[in-house]
C-alpha cells in the first residue's frame, strides 16, 4: 500500500488538499474563482466595436430604407402589372434554364478539377473562377466578340445554321450561365474534395464502370453540395444585369429581366422599381435561409 504524507495543515505532499476535488476551479486568490468564458470569446474593445457597428449599419440601413419606402398599399397592383409580370416570368425561366446549363456543364468540370491530375489544372481553375471577379459588362462584351454575328463562333453559327444568339432570350440564358456557373463549380468541387474517394474505388473493384460509380456512388454523396451550388447559381443568374444588358439587350417580353426592369423603372416609375426590388430582396433572403446550415450556423 502506498502511503502519502500530509503536512500539519492536512495537505498532501503531492500538492493535493486531500478533499478529493480534482476538478475544482483555479482561484485567483483566497476564496476567489477566476471568471470562466466560452472558448474563443473575448471582450470587444471599443476601438473595434465602433467601426464594426458602423459597418453593420452601412450594410443594413439601405435594406431598411427599401422596406420603409416600399409602396405596401399598392404593392400587389405594381407586381401584377403586365410589364412586371413579364419581367418576373422571363427572369424565372431564364435563371432556371441557366442553372440547368450550369449543372450539365459545371458538375463534370468540377469532377475534372477535383478528381484528376490534369496538367494545368490550376490555370483551368483560375479561368473557371475568373467570371467571379470579372466585371459583368466586360463578360457581356467578351460574349459578343465570341458569339455575336461577327464573332469568332457566332459568325459561323449564323452562316452555317442561321442561328443568332445576341439580343434573344437564348442570349439571356447564355449570359446568366456565364456568370453563374463558377458558383456551382466551386461548390461541387469542394464537395468532391470532402467526399471519400475510396467508395468509388470500392465500386470499381466490384465491376462498376466509372460512369456507373459516378452516377450511383459519387452523385448521392455530393448531392448537398450540388444543391447548394445550384441555389447559388440560380440566385446569381436571377440578379444578373451587366452581361445581360450588354449581350442580350433590354427588350420587354424578350430579354428584359427583373434587374433590367428595375433599372428602367427608376427613370419613369420609382414605385414599380421598389416593388420589383422587394421581390429580388425576398429571393435573396430565401437563398440565405435555404443555405443557413452552410453560412449561418455557429461552430
Task: Describe the protein in words.
The protein has 299 residues and is an all-alpha fold. It contains 14 helices and two strands, in the order ββαααααααααααααα. It has helices spanning 46-68, 75-79, 82-115, 121-133, 136-147, 154-161, 169-194, 198-205, 210-221, 223-238, 242-247, 258-268, 270-290, 292-295; strands at 27-29, 32-33. The protein has a two-stranded antiparallel ribbon. Strand 1 (27-29) and strand 2 form a beta hairpin. It is globular. The two termini are 48 Å apart. The relative contact order is 0.12. The model is unreliable at 1-6 and 15-26 (pLDDT under 50).
Structural class by sheet pairing and helices: mainly alpha
Sequence stretches where pLDDT stays below 50 over 5 or more residues: 1-6, 15-26
Helix and strand string, N-terminal first?
EEHHHHHHHHHHHHHH
The largest β sheet comes out as: 2 strands, antiparallel
N/C terminus separation = 48 Å
Measured as a percent range, the helix fraction is: 55-70%
What is the total tally of β strands? 2
User: How many DSSP helices?
Assistant: 14
Average pLDDT works out at 82
Percentage of residues in strands: under 5%
- Which oligomeric state applies? single chain
Radius of gyration: 29 Å
Amino acid at each position: 500500500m502506498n502511503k502519502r504524507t500530509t503536512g500539519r495543515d492536512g495537505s498532501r505532499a503531492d500538492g493535493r488538499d486531500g478533499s478529493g476535488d480534482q476538478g475544482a476551479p483555479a482561484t485567483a486568490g483566497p476564496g476567489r474563482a477566476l471568471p470562466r468564458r466560452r472558448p474563443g470569446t473575448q471582450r470587444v474593445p471599443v476601438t473595434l466595436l465602433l467601426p464594426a457597428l458602423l459597418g453593420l449599419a452601412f450594410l443594413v440601413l439601405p435594406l431598411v430604407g427599401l422596406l420603409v419606402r416600399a409602396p405596401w398599399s399598392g404593392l400587389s397592383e405594381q407586381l401584377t402589372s403586365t410589364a412586371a409580370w413579364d419581367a418576373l416570368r422571363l427572369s424565372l425561366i431564364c435563371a432556371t434554364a441557366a442553372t440547368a446549363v450550369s449543372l450539365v456543364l459545371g458538375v463534370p468540370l468540377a469532377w475534372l478539377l477535383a478528381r484528376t491530375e490534369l496538367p494545368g489544372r490550376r490555370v483551368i481553375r483560375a479561368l473557371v473562377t475568373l467570371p467571379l471577379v470579372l466585371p459583368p459588362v466586360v463578360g457581356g462584351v467578351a460574349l459578343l466578340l465570341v458569339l455575336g454575328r461577327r464573332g469568332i463562333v457566332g459568325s459561323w453559327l449564323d452562316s452555317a445554321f442561321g442561328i443568332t444568339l445576341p439580343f434573344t432570350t437564348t442570349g439571356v440564358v447564355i449570359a446568366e450561365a456565364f456568370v453563374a456557373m463558377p458558383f456551382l463549380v466551386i461548390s461541387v468541387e469542394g464537395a468532391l474534395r470532402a467526399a471519400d474517394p475510396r467508395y468509388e474505388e470500392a465500386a470499381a473493384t466490384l465491376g462498376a464502370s466509372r460512369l456507373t460509380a459516378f452516377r450511383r456512388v459519387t452523385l448521392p454523396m455530393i448531392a448537398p453540395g450540388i444543391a447548394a451550388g445550384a441555389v447559388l447559381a440560380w440566385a446569381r443568374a436571377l440578379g444578373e444585369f451587366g452581361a445581360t444588358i450588354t449581350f442580350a439587350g433590354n427588350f420587354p417580353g424578350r430579354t428584359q429581366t427583373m434587374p433590367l426592369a428595375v433599372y428602367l423603372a427608376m427613370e419613369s416609375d420609382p414605385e414599380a422599381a421598389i416593388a420589383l426590388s422587394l421581390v429580388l430582396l425576398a429571393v435573396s433572403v430565401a437563398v440565405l435561409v435555404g443555405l443557413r446550415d452552410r453560412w449561418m450556423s455557429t461552430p
